[in-house]
Write a structure and sequence with these properties.
Largest sheet: 9 strands, mixed
CATH architecture of the largest domain: Alpha-Beta Horseshoe
Structural class: alpha/beta
CATH superfamily of the largest domain: tm_1862 like domain
Low-confidence stretches: none
Strand order of the largest sheet: 9-10-8-7-6-5-4-1-13
Mean pLDDT: 94
CATH topology of the largest domain: pyruvate-formate lyase- activating enzyme
Number of domains: 2
Strand content: 15-25%
Length: 458
């Protein structure tokens, strides 16, 4: 394992995109319309060798509010509201499906939220059955669902498993009771362990646990205790997210008192300890916030340089057309991004008018495609073979990216990257600051066109 230099973390700790897409969501245009999306769907559904489908369903409802949450969610216990939403989700599915060739296969399915298991087991069966009627799945498709163990019964997991789900992800954040109370997420350790036991008994192939550092009252000692418990539980994957306190974007985060948050130096100490503890326990650092066991598909894809990144994070399914349904959901075809309407009423109204519920989107130009290729290769492979990229895009790399390469000189001096005529290679330390490295190839940052507020990179 590489040596972690906290001075460099401090030096490069600044706001920056997470690059689940390029261009990033702040660049999406309100002028992108239902017609623009429909034209692209039709245009990309002819010919041979079409990519597989990746389906995402946004289920925004939650039982209680977690103060740290950065997701697009709705707090409700109104079951009629949930059923109404499911009715329109099916309607959107019908519209999308009517434009897709029937022989295109689904290689990836993900339910996110919110809390998908806010649905009852019967509602899970109803939605999952409707999806299976409308789409054909690969035999080895990756079907994942996010769950909340606090309001979960074994029947929820049985419904998911019986409908072909094979991956589960759930939040833990921190096992410390004081931290849990401060963020309004009371989740005793025994509930988490019981849920993991059920997941394993039911034969799910993979389980991921989400942790978060930078929450109120966390210390290096208390978070180490949480990590020890998680390592003992032994999930296949672990995500350790940096809490981004952005109350100007998520108003409920104002319920977290800034004076209770750990100091930046403490956060860095926690991060350093986390990486050292997880990697010494056998987990492979995948990139950004993710760790996986060596035999996990993510770790194998990283080794074979087949890793991919989309709005759900790191994935092994590169090249699939992502159709995302539900409020706020973001779709990604080869040359476009499309985001759905953000409120229920407007979402329902659009579908009642038989129009796709588009609120904004973006069509990539040639420069975007080149820069996306560079950024995604760096984010996923941690290296870039320059002659391959020049041949693929017909550019002189040094001229095209003169601004970024000039910026990389300081990063090379700090041992974050190694730059030669043929290759850019990210070092172990650089992998932890990959967002900073990628920003040097972002045309919107280079041209000072990106004025969005982002979370900090560390």
């Amino acid at each position: 394992m590489f040596e972690l230099d906290l001075r460099k973390f401090k030096k490069y700790d600044k706001p920056g995109p997470r690059y689940t897409s390029y261009p990033t969501a702040p660049q999406f245009k309100d002028t992108f319309s239902h017609e623009n999306y429909l034209d692209e769907i039709i245009r990309t559904n002819y010919g041979e060798g079409l990519p597989d489908l990746s389906l995402y369903f946004h289920l925004p409802f939650c039982d209680t509010l977690c103060y740290f949450c950065g997701c697009n969610m709705i707090i409700t216990r109104n079951r009629d509201r949930v059923r109404e939403y499911l009715k329109y989700l099916k309607k959107e599915m019908d519209m999308i499906r009517s434009y897709l060739l029937s022989d295109r296969l689904v290689s990836q399915l993900h339910w996110g939220g919110g809390t998908p298991t806010h649905l009852t087991p019967d509602e899970i069966n109803e939605l999952a059955s409707y999806i299976k009627v409308n789409f054909n799945f690969n035999d080895n498709s990756e079907n994942g669902c996010e769950i909340d163990p606090r309001e979960l019964k074994r029947a929820h997991l049985e419904a998911l498993r019986n409908n072909g789900f094979n991956r589960i992800s759930m939040g833990v954040q921190d096992f410390n009771e004081k931290v849990q109370k401060a963020v309004n997420r009371i989740q005793p350790e025994d509930i988490t362990r019981q849920t993991v036991q059920w997941v394993r008994e039911l034969g799910f192939s993979s389980i991921n646990l989400d942790l978060m550092y930078g929450l109120p009252f966390q210390t290096i000692e208390t978070f180490a205790e949480t990590l020890d418990k998680v390592i003992d539980i032994s999930p296949d994957r672990i995500a350790v997210f940096n809490y981004a306190h952005v109350p100007w974007m998520k108003k409920h985060m104002a319920l977290i008192h800034p004076e209770d948050l750990p100091l930046p130096e403490t956060k860095l100490d926690i991060l350093k300890m986390t990486i050292e503890k997880l990697t010494s326990s056998g987990y492979v650092f995948i990139g950004m916030d993710h760790f996986a066991k060596p035999d996990d598909e993510l770790a194998i894809a990283l080794k074979e340089k087949k890793l991919y990144r989309n709005f759900q994070g790191y994935s092994t399914h590169a090249g699939a057309d992502l159709y995302a349904m539900g409020i706020t959901a973001i779709s990604q075809l080869k040359n476009i991004y499309v985001q759905n309407i953000k409120t229920e009423k407007e979402y329902f109204d659009a579908l009642d008018k038989e129009t796709l519920p588009v609120t904004r989107g973006y069509r990539l130009n040639e420069d975007d495609l080149i820069r996306r290729d560079v950024i995604m290769k760096l984010m996923c492979n941690f290296e870039l073979i320059i002659p391959d990229l020049e041949q693929k895009h017909g550019i002189d790399f040094k001229k095209y990216f003169a601004w970024g390469l000039n910026n990389l000189r300081e990063m090379e001096e700090d041992a974050l990257v190694s730059v030669s005529d043929n290759k850019i290679e990210v070092t172990g330390m650089g992998k932890l600051l990959i967002r900073n490295i990628a920003m040097n190839f972002d045309g919107y940052i280079e041209r000072k066109e990106d004025t969005a507020k982002y979370s900090r990179t560390v």
